[in-house]
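Readers of this paper often ask what the protein records in our data store actually look like. Nothing more is needed to write down the fold, since each code stands for a local backbone conformation. Below, we set out a record of this kind in full and without editing:
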Amino acid sequence: MSNSGTRKTREQIEGIFYPKSVAVVGSNRVKGTVPHDIFYNILKDNFQGVVYPVSPKEPSISGVKAYKYVIDIQEEVDMAVLVFPSSVCNLAMEQCGQKGVKSMIIISAGFKEVGEVGLKREQEVKAIADKYGISFIGPNCLGVINTDPYCHFNASFARRMPAEGSIAFLSQSGALCTAVLDYAYAKNIGFSKFVSFGNKADVSEIDLLYYLKDDPKTKVILLYLEEVSNGRALMEAARTIIRETGKPILALKSGRTNEGALAAASHTGSLAGSDEVCNAAFKQAGIIRCNTIEEMFNYAIAFSYQPIPASNKIAIITNAGGPGVLATDKAIKEGLTLARFSEETTRTFKKSLPVTANIKNPVDVIGDARADRYNAALSASLSDPDVDGALVILTPQSMTEIKTIAEEICNISRGFTKPVYASFMGEMDVMEGIHVLEKNHIPHYSIPEDMCQSFATTYKFGSSLAIKDEAFVPFSDIDKDAASAILKEAASKGRTYLPEEEAVKVLEAYKLPVLPHGLANSKEEAAALGDKIGYPVVMKVMSEDIVHKFDVGGVQLNINNAEEAKKAYAGILANCKEKMPKAQIKGILVQKMVKNGEEVILGLKRDAAFGHVIMFGLGGIFVEVFKDVSFKVIPCDKTQIKDLLHEIKGFPLLDGIRGRTKKDVESIIACIQRLSQLAVDCPEIKELDINPLIVQNRNEGCYVADTKIML
């Protein structure tokens, strides 16, 4: 959504990409400066509309009559590109509003990125835009490029206009855009739309995503973000685009580390860093997160140039055994399968390839192979009904017909609807063949492993399109009012931490499996509660001042009789008095102790960008040492919860690995569903831990052994 909180209409964004007349406000004659180069790029790159330079000091720019002010232009102006210093952008924006301009790109820097003064300027410009109904990109951006020949609009200060293509690129960073354009130019990659949206004071990436959803020129959407300001809107936009159009969204998100973050009060808070949450949210929404620019474009060309694979069954064709083995290893690791060739395909190989060739998959046409062997191997492989894609590897030998082989690959590929990728290994010797592949839209990769990874990524994306979203169904047996009353009471008193006896009541209200318990205020009460609950029991100090009870000796385990209960009560009080003498102690919680079972951790955290996320992992030392946890954004359906469980490396311990008894995974899923509803109903919860949740054998349930809630 736009910065105003409402989503821009398609017509408003269309005006930015398809203006019929453009005024460059603040242009000049000084080559190599942004004000000059913006105007010159629009002019030289064959813009199909009318362009007006606006310059208070110059009579003309690049042979075109200049106007002192935008209001001096007699004809209608659809769009203005603003390149004045930020200190006077408000005046220019006001004149554009009076002129009736409805679309703008504010290139100028010096806004919120420079601090409080810049933020005020940005707010003022935004207010003027709202007054006149102007939609704008920026400020502090590189500009906008539309390669559609109908418009051919380069309102940027990039060095060159990219070629037309089906990839759209949206970036928060203008400097990155120039590097991406140069990278893409070297690899013959074209774009449909190219946008640097800068500070996104008005039009946001969400608005642009919804526009690209229905853009017939765009097949693949690339997104570079430095921060996510509205995570839920981003997820919803991505889901809508992918579900309704099948267009993949590839994202590069910087700021992966969490240096300098304050320690959180709960395990969930400390483990659910912004990058971990972002990873989970992107995956949940169907966004493919990339680690590097190269990886992003490796995937982008695969999606843009070739069909999505119908299955994971591939044929590998190579003229070198080593690279063929490397490709096979990577393919299997990425979840691909080597197709089994039919008898007919095998007979064709025997007729067309030398006896020294390997006619099993991967097919090795031998180092001295010329174009005819590649032709025979690729044609036969793609014709085989068990093959749904081909990966072609070439290493340059003295007799290798590099360009001809590339041409053969392109020609054969056109006769099939199965994807074909290539890896011509090397640099200079194979360059001519690479250019042939790139110009004919065969995805090319310098190393076979990248080729395999890209094929697997497109296959997994295609497979995910068949998975239907499930509706979140609320539970009818919960007591929302009881839980809300406890939380509101704590909040009204300015408390940020619920003692366990209150946290347990919140969980009880949502029918989570809380163990029998009671609060004791004397040794005698502790013994009586132990007798009532049944031994063994665990005893824990209850104090708003003591969050980590184990650290101060505030927990005693394995209490087996009344005398041990009395002794534990006294010992806990003594430990706490010694370690935290000022702590206000409300009593000692006596709780049934479950000895057998697998310990797991469940948690909630409210993330600034994505809202509540849920965490799952193995409990005890596993979460402390290995940090083997996974996350989902709430609400999540049952399929997503199953993914949450399977994503941790330790899941086989719950699933009966090596003869172990299977644990009650269904009861964990039910607990996560109920926690999800608690988070939806009670947004004031900042962090929550259930650590451990003790999971019994299959069909025997699970129990909440300890919990923390922070507000």
